[in-house]
Each structure stands twice: as C-alpha cells, then as structure tokens.
C-alpha cells in the first residue's frame, strides 16, 4: 500500500481522527465520529522489525490491512453508562492551548535520539506498544534506572548485526552484532544541557568480567579481555549489552542508568516515519561499500539511503571509523532538528508512525521495559533545547604499539572529558541564573578571603588512604613536604572506611589552613568538610585529608575543569554541518 493510503479506513485520515475534547482540553484519537469504541484485541507483533503492524480496529466498513494500528477507545468506569465521545470537531476552550506544546509533552525527547521520545508519543495504546518492546537483562550493570531528580546517562548501542529484511546484502551476514556505534548520552540534572559522547569502536580497552543472563534464564560469567577492541564488548564470546555497559563504566568511571540497542532497521524505519532527514554534503560521494551515492549539496534521505549515509566512511574525512563518527553525529543532529520541528510535532500521523517505528526498532534493558518508563524518560529528554546538546568523541590517538594503524588509544585529554561528564559540567555555554548567582557569591567570598590564607609551612595535616591506590598516602606526604613546603604533615595510614571522593576535614579555626591546602592540591570546594580537628603526633590540632577513590596521584588536581580542552572536537545539534 502506498504511503498516502496508510492508516486510512473509510477514507478517514488518521490526522483527522485527533480531536480536541472540550471537557479536558486534551487531544484524543477517535476512530469513530459518533459511537463509543469497543476494546480492541491485542495486536500481533510483526515478525519483521522493518514491516508494519497489523491493525485490529473497527470501522464502518471492513478496512484493508494498515501500518498504523487501531487504538482502543476511552475507558469508562465499571457500571457507568456508556456515553458517546465528543464529536470530531469539538468546541475549543476559551483559552487556546498550543498544539505544538501539547504534542511536545507527548513526544518528550528523542532516542538514538528519537526512540525514547516516540515511545512517549502514543500512550493511548499502551498495550500494543508494550508488545512491540524487546528487553534483555541489565545483569546488575546499571544504576538501576534513570532518576527524574538526577542527571541521566543513557548508553545507546548501534549493532552491526544484519538482522531484518533487506540487510543481508551489506556483507558480514554472520556478524554476531558487535558494538559498532556507541554513544553515551548524558543529560544534566537541571535538563538545560546534554552531551553525546561517541566511543570509537576500535578503541583499545579492558573489558571486565561480565555476569550475563542466558536465553534459558541461566547465569554465566563471561571472562574479561585486556587490550581488546571496544566493539568486542558486545556479541563476542556471547557478551550481552550489559557487558558493553560494564566496559563503559570501566573506561569512563560513569555508570549508565539504562541502555538501548538499535540495529540497521532502526535507521531505516525511523527516518521513513519522520518523512526523511535533510543532510548536507560538501562534495559528491559515491561509496560502493555503503551503497551511498549523492551529489554535493543538501538532500532529504530516508530508509536504505539514510542507512547508507550513516555507514559510509571511505568517502569522507580520512576514510576511517573516526570520520564515520563525525558523519553520524551530523546525521543525528539533523534528525533532532527534524523531530523538534513543527512539521513533525504537529502531525499526529507522523507521531503514530514514529511511536510504532521507535518501539519496534529498539531493545532496552530490563529497567526500561515498558512504555510508561520510556514515556517518562522521553518527557525528561524533551525539556532539552537542541542548541545545548553537544556531540563529541572520546579523545584518542593512534595506537603507538602498531606499525599499521588500525586501533586507537586514549589521548591525554580523555580523563578531563570523562570527569566533566561525571561532574555534570556543560560542554556548551548555558545561561543559568542560579549558576551566575553562585559564581558571583563565590567571587565575593574569594575577595573577602584574599590575603587570609595560611602559608604552606603553617598547614598541619595528617594524610589517610580512604580508597586510593596503595601507597597514595605516602606518595602525597612526600610531595607535600618536599615539593610544596607543607612540612607539618604526617601519614596516618588507612581510613576507617573507603570514600568515593577525597575530603579534607577541618575545625572552624583551621579554615585558612584548609583553603591553602585545597589550593595546593587542587581540591574542589565540595571536598572541604567543616568538622573537628584531631591531635597529631606532636599533640597539636591538625586537619585530616582522606584520599578517596577519585584520587589521581600526588600533584594531580581534583578540581573539575569548566572548559572543554581546545583539542577536543565538538559540535552542537542546532548547527548545520556538511560532510566533507
């Protein structure tokens, strides 16, 4: 059936079936203009992720099969008399509500990036969409799921598995599905900004041991591998997405809240559902490997052509995976702009198609296995403005151990990028009144305290190891005494308990000493802990410095940088960039 005929029954367009209920002010889907809807049998899930879903709705005459499923009518309380729903052209309330904002609340954000948002678009037929969702165990590798009151970290995994209709011709038909494209999406606690961090598939990492749940329900620990390609964290040796999640935590120090996995068909079905995505090329491209053939300029692509676009690498940049990452980021930025446009947000037909395509195209972890959870996540992501979504890539350099450059290793700036994400620092300039007020207060406090800090020789501190590598307390002590002049310091051994972050506890009359030591060591303000002093070996009151798991070595600052290093490539989703 052609695209214009999809979802029609009795010549009724799905877009005409969304009407305003004057009693609630909500837009509702009505399949019949004059009679109440009866419950619809649970639709069958299509075997092919690329195909449509069979509808089971009723109309005045028998309708042909449709890609857009029928939707249950409004529920009524048991024992209450049936009443006909409001007419298709209900009277608008006196205060006109923004249709764009209403649909935006339904759609939320995007997943990969559209998948999450589209799931939130169609909660009028939850049972049907729930049947579309496939989930696998997180095996305890996640935080237990995202929290509305905290920053959100979602691991998006694109596999190279050739499942689904039309994908056999891309070569490597027997692929087990490696982590071919992986993005760690961090959304700030206040939802003002987000960072999408691409992880190169050829990055050399240590893959930890991975407890996994097998298809038969049994558990198996898959042994880890040192100095392995990142993409082997999925598929290789039976590894599941939870193994990729553990590898990301090992690499970055960030534990994802949830993961989502998409295959080739995700790109094809989602771009078709949204009506195509506009991309830009700075030159002609003819890539026989990805089957992409486009002339210089702008093009609207969807389906197979969109998949070819995100897979191409030999014809752009340096012809490697890092160049392909950049073109994928450009594509996702364009997709975000299309999803946020009025053309998409005000089209119920597109929203229904997106909900169908989105829920079929993804596999989620067991903490995110219902349409309600996806809708809630989508609504959180929907608060984000695309101009404050930054795309960047893990900083890497060629692997020096190889003569023929095939893999990469972390660059010196990578830890800074990881720490900024971990500490919820924006990669783009975001105007925040609260932050401006906080910065002004900090500046005023610094001005008042100027000249009141103690000299290094006056600082008395004992150093304890509370989770740092063995020998860190002695290393720090030697550095303080020999390099920084903090001679009144001593090693106090191991702390009573391990801490995730380094702390400096001091008494009120030791505030000047605490500020001096914090400046020397590069401790953030959050590390200073007003409390009590203890007695040192000379019987004098002293502060206590406890080195936590975040300790990076003597002389290495623990203060999170506020600016992305100049050498780190980044772009924002609102900018149109052309593939070169």
Question: What report would you give on this structure?
Answer:
By secondary structure, the protein is an alpha/beta fold. It is built from 14 helices and 26 strands. Strands 3-16-11-4-5-6-17-26 form an eight-stranded mixed sheet, with helices on both faces. Strands 20, 21, 22, 23, 24 and 25 form a six-stranded mixed sheet that branches. Helix 14 (511-521) links the parallel strand 22 and strand 23 (528-530). Helix 5 (264-273) packs across helix 6. The chain is elongated, with a radius of gyration of 28 Å. The protein starts with 17 loop residues before the first strand and ends in an 8-residue tail after the last strand.
Write the layout of secondary structure elements.
Elements: E1 18-21, E2 26-29, H1 99-107, H2 111-119, H3 126-132, E3 134-136, E4 152-159, E5 179-187, E6 194-199, E7 204-207, E8 210-213, E9 219-222, E10 225-229, H4 241-252, E11 258-262, H5 264-273, E12 277-281, E13 285-287, E14 292-294, E15 297-301, H6 303-311, H7 321-340, H8 342-345, H9 348-361, E16 362-365, H10 371-381, E17 389-393, E18 396-398, E19 408-410, H11 414-422, H12 433-449, E20 461-465, H13 472-483, E21 489-494, E22 503-506, H14 511-521, E23 528-530, E24 534-535, E25 541-547, E26 570-572
Parallel strand pairs: 3-16, 4-11, 6-17, 20-21, 20-25, 22-23
Antiparallel strand pairs: 1-2, 4-5, 5-6, 7-10, 8-9, 11-16, 12-15, 13-14, 17-26, 18-19, 22-25, 24-25
Helix pairs in contact: 2-9, 2-10, 5-6, 5-9
């Amino acid at each position: 059936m052609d695209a214009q005929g999809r979802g029609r029954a009795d010549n009724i367009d799905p877009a005409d079936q969304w009407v305003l209920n004057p009693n609630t002010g909500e837009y509702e889907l009505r399949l019949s203009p004059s009679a109440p809807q009866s419950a619809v049998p649970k639709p069958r899930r299509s075997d092919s992720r690329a195909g449509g879903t069979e509808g089971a709705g009723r109309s005045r005459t028998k309708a042909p099969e449709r890609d857009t499923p029928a939707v249950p009518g409004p529920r009524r309380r048991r024992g209450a008399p049936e009443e006909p729903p409001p007419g298709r052209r209900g009277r608008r309330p006196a205060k006109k509500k923004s249709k764009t904002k209403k649909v935006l609340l339904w759609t939320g954000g995007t997943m990969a990036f559209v998948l999450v948002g589209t799931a939130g678009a169609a909660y009028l037929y939850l049972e049907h969409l729930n049947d579309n969702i496939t989930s696998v165990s997180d095996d305890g590798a996640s935080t237990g799921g995202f929290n509305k009151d905290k920053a959100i970290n979602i691991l998006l995994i694109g596999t190279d598995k050739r499942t689904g209709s039309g994908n056999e011709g891309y070569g490597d038909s027997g692929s087990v599905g490696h982590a071919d494209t992986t993005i760690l999406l961090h959304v700030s606690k206040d939802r003002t900004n987000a960072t999408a961090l691409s992880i190169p598939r050829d990055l050399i990492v240590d893959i930890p041991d991975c407890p996994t749940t097998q298809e038969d329900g049994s558990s198996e620990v898959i042994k880890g591998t040192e100095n392995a390609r990142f993409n082997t964290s999925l598929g290789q040796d039976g590894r599941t997405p939870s193994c990729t999640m553990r590898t990301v935590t090992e690499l970055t120090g960030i534990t994802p809240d949830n993961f989502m996995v998409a295959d080739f068909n995700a790109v094809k079905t989602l771009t078709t559902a949204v009506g195509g995505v506009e991309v830009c090329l700075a030159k002609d491209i003819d890539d026989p490997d990805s089957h992409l053939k486009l002339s210089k300029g702008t093009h609207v692509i969807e389906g197979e052509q969109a998949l070819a676009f995100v897979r191409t690498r030999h014809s752009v940049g340096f012809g490697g995976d890092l160049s392909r990452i950049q073109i994928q980021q450009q594509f996702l930025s364009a997709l975000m702009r299309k999803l946020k446009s009025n053309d998409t947000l005000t089209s119920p037909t597109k929203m229904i198609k997106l909900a169908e395509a989105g829920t079929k195209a993804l596999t989620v972890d067991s903490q995110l296995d219902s349409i309600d959870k996806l809708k809630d996540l989508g609504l959180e992501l929907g608060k984000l403005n695309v101009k404050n979504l930054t795309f960047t890539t893990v900083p890497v350099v060629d692997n020096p151990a190889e003569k023929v450059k095939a893999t990469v290793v972390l660059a010196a700036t990578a830890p800074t990028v990881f720490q900024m994400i971990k500490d919820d620092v924006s990669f783009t300039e975001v105007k925040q009144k609260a932050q401006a007020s906080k910065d002004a207060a900090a500046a005023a406090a610094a001005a008042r305290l100027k000249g009141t800090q103690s000299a290094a020789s006056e600082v008395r501190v004992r150093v304890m190891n509370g989770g740092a590598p063995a020998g860190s307390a002695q290393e720090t002590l030697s550095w303080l005494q020999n390099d920084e002049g903090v001679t009144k310091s001593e090693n106090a051994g191991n702390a009573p308990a391990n801490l995730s972050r380094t702390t400096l506890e001091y008494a009120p009359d030791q505030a000047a000493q605490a500020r001096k030591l914090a400046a020397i060591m590069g401790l953030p303000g959050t590390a200073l802990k007003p409390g009590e002093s203890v007695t040192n070996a000379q019987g004098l009151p002293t502060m206590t410095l406890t080195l936590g798991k975040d300790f990076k070595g003597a002389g290495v600052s623990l203060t999170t940088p506020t600016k992305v290093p100049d050498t780190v490539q980044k772009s924002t989703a609102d900018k149109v960039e052309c593939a070169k």
